[in-house]
Specification:
The structure is a homotrimer. By secondary structure, the first copy, chain A, is of the alpha+beta class. Chain A has helices at residues 15-25, 50-63, 79-88, and strands spanning 2-4, 10-13, 30-36, 41-46, 91-97, 100-101, 108-113, 119-128. Chain A has 3 helices and 8 strands. In chain A, the strands form 2 sheets. In chain A, strands 1-8-3-5-6 form a 5-stranded antiparallel beta sheet, with helices on one face. A 3-stranded antiparallel beta sheet of chain A has the order 2-7-4.
């Protein structure tokens, strides 16, 4: 799945697109693994509410400040993005039953952009039980 | 699996119940995916020791203070619980071999309650290799 | 997979060894689940660059200081290692396609030693789609 992000840091709700891929797969029972191939982005599951999305980005800034001196040697000067990605993780696994993702009412799946804006790829793999 | 929690924040050891579900499944070789459908709870694997359980909750309070002003717009005023859930993650995946979870001696599986007490659901999905 | 670590905290790149196990398995399409059986080690995926490896360990020290008083009752006095392991997580799941791990150019798989030096075990489980 291709994603075009528009800010340095941003949460992109990909739930509907993942649901569509589960449906397309025809798999009724199994698991769905969502991964990113990037080292400056993460995959998380939580509620999609405007204030909370801001809180998540604020928390990442509090734990891993952007304007701190890091040792990472890179022309991008983006160590904070890598470190935030380590805290969030690069995959989530969600059960599939009766052809649907087993998600709670308030759960949305997000790609978290940590060093955008960029073109990003998220991989969705569905495994039959 | 239904869980009744009794405090606002709490670690509930679900290892024995997950082991029983693996046994019931009859699956000898595969993986076991443990997920929560809640946005204010998490799944972790670590040692079940009273002091360490307290340390984990203290760490979450240090990283994500309960009494801080957050942007999350909710009647529950529980942004801290969502943010802590993001740090912990909503799933863990554990191999199954010879009909048993591949866990180390000190590894226990926990549902982490972050906004209780509540009735909670944990989903256990076992996939054959 | 056996790993001999040489410092108290350290990132060990295991990407090549995981790739070799995927190849050996002969599985062309599926997922690869990498787990640790230890409660004072973690599995992460990010870039293998010397400065960034140091930044990751520095971040863990900033978030979970080694020389703080913890409640964990243990002869090892290693609560910080357990807490850091909780933040990192004990598993990562990576898709397998065309017989290869679906990893981005900059993604390496690491075992993170948090209480070494020790002999460690990492478990790699490959599931066919």
């Amino acid at each position: 799945m291709d994603i075009q992000t528009s800010s340095r840091t941003e949460l992109i709700d990909i739930t509907d697109r993942v649901r569509a891929l589960v449906k397309e797969s025809g798999i009724k029972d199994g698991i769905c693994v969502i991964t990113t191939r990037h080292t400056t982005g993460g995959i998380i599951v939580n509620e999609n509410e405007r204030g909370l999305r801001a809180d998540i980005l604020d928390l990442l800034e509090a734990l891993v400040p952007e304007n701190k001196k890091y040792a990472h040697n890179s022309i991008d000067d983006n160590a904070d993005a890598h470190l935030r990605a380590v805290l969030l993780g690069m995959s989530e696994t969600i059960p599939v039953e009766d052809g649907h993702l087993v998600l709670g009412t308030w759960q949305s799946i997000f790609f978290v952009e940590l060093d955008g804006p960029r073109n990003r790829t998220v991989h969705v793999k569905i495994i039959k039980a």
